[in-house]
Amino acid sequence: MDPRLRVDQPGELIAALPAMLGFVPERSFVVAVLCRPSPGAAAAIEAVVRFDLDAVSDPRHREQFTECVESICAREQATGVLAVLVEDRPIPAHAAALLDALGATGIGVRGAWSVPAIAAGARYRSLFDPAAGGRVPDPASSPVALAHVLDGKQIRRSRRELTAVLRPDRPLGAQVHPRIGPAVARYRDGLSAATRMGRATPYQRGALEWVLWQIADAASGAPRAARELARLAATLRDRSVRDAMYGLALGDHAEAAEQLWTQLARATSGTDRAEAAALLGFSAYVRGDGPFAGVALTAAVEADADHPMAVLLETSLQSGLRPERLRSLAHCGHQIAADLGVDLGPIAR
Description:
Elements: H1 10-21, E1 28-35, E2 44-52, H2 53-56, H3 59-76, E3 80-86, H4 94-104, E4 109-115, E5 123-126, E6 133-135, H5 143-150, H6 159-163, H7 170-196, H8 200-218, H9 226-235, H10 239-245, H11 254-267, H12 270-286, H13 290-303, H14 308-318, H15 327-339
Parallel strand pairs: 3-4
Antiparallel strand pairs: 1-2, 1-3, 4-5, 5-6
Helix pairs in contact: 1-5, 7-8, 7-9, 8-11, 10-15, 11-12, 12-13, 12-14, 13-14
InterPro entries: DUF4192 (IPR025447)
Protein name: DUF4192 domain-containing protein
């Protein structure tokens, strides 16, 4: 958390949530996990987790909610949590049940507030003392928001805006889908012929270099043609080429790669969409954009519930695993590319 943000100022905390989450939350239950960096130091926010209010309000999902928060608190050795209820409807009775559920696990709720919307001037109230409250300062002027903008991070107006990034492009998909089968056949026939001649590695190296060229060209903002996206989907079905792509998440070409994975995910379905969305989700995950990583990984699992990497990454994200713990996967990608004779460049982030 930015050192200029004091956790004992509820209005500043609430104003900072859009920057912390990457979007302005609506009808949400947000939990900020508190840790003490060193003995005697002031408490700092180590993690922020957002839950859909309608979902966690369902008693059937209550246990899953508390287990998630409890797992993160245990991993971070939390000293407590702060909770913010963002709700434009009358405050529901089950708000207290959520706080009680957290308390029942031994998690100390150090403060809890409700606010109808996170906007300048919105009035927030304490859930422990309805008479206590105040006004939310301008979220755009939050020190955390300013730090994010200077760092080039985008704060979206709502989670809907976030999910729209991966909304399927039906017209483009209709062009890409019939081309994938022939593209897969061509790739497999070429690899089989190369293998018979003892040239499988050069063939895969050429395929990997072609994907890297597509990524470099995508950096210009030009959308890929349907035939290129079909060939890309076919090429990523080669496990070696696909796994090498995870190495790009820590390099200078990460942003361009994310643009290409987004185009491919929107133009495909099933396992092909899951592959692209998992690559996108991993890249967002390791750069610290948990909300977008969550959207991408959810899209991947919805496209293919049995996709191993998508399931692993989504589980890691939901359990609060730190991004740096996943850097080894990117290093493996670099090694796989090197084994094929391709240098992915320096690890830059």
